[in-house]
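User: Can you help me understand a structure? I only have the sequence.
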Amino acid sequence: MTKEHSFYLVIFLITIFRNFINPNSYFSMNDNHFKFSPSVFLIPFLSVLVLWFVYWIDVRFHFNFDQLGIYPRTVSGLIGIVCSPFLHGNLEHLYNNSIPLFILIAALRYFYSDYIFKILGYGILISGLLTWIIGRESYHIGASGLIYVLVSFIFFKGIMTKYYRLVALSLLVVLIYGSMIWYIFPNIQEGISWEGHLAGLITGFIFAIIFKTPEYKKIIKYDWEHPDFDSEEDKFMQHFDENGNFVNLPKIEIEEESEVENPLFYISNPNINYEYIENKNGLKQ
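Assistant: Let's start by predicting it. Here is the structure, written out as tokens:
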């Protein structure tokens, strides 16, 4: 782990810790999408602890767990799809995977809490299966395939959502782990499973497309933001020509209504007949 990686790790942890002690901080101000809980640290800590525990069991009792890794295109190698992320060849291999795995799982839990277990579970299975299909005839072990799943998902999903904080997270992931892209190609470094890395990258990209995040969808405030908006029907947009120049609309001539002669049923001209009735006093009226 380089000094730059350590620096970004410290910044990431401080940012989340600030949000924990001060929910109204800048990081969470006016934003209810991200809610801190102890599981942001607990889940990645337990995940990494399991890796170290398995490695300790392997070394302490000489079980040689490497044979439980993925051996491509063999029935016995299928068990490695589940087991391989928990197995590591040496202490350096385990250490190099532990730090990024902790950071990425913490980021996944904080920013994509609804999908954390699906991405971890399905990520292990699908990336492992792809490795079993395309891998060389050798045992493939290590959590690096899962790390590539997380890096790929977090990067592509943030870009797809266009939500500014998730886009910032994507850029941060590229800044820290961008150099990992070279290890999806063969013959870059001896002894690494570039097939597992490539499988993880593909799996993460597929997850970014499949798992929807409507909560980050931009709220439509104006008519012109609707996908079915027709500028030709909009009264305001009609004031602009094809080059964007303002033009006056032609005046609409209002035809004067001709005077309508009153129909006959509005004319009151009845014949009036008067009758004179002699009253008791002999007067007429």
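Now, to help you interpret it: Residues 23-30 have pLDDT under 50 and may be disordered. The two ends are 124 Å apart (CA to CA). Let me know which part you'd like to focus on.
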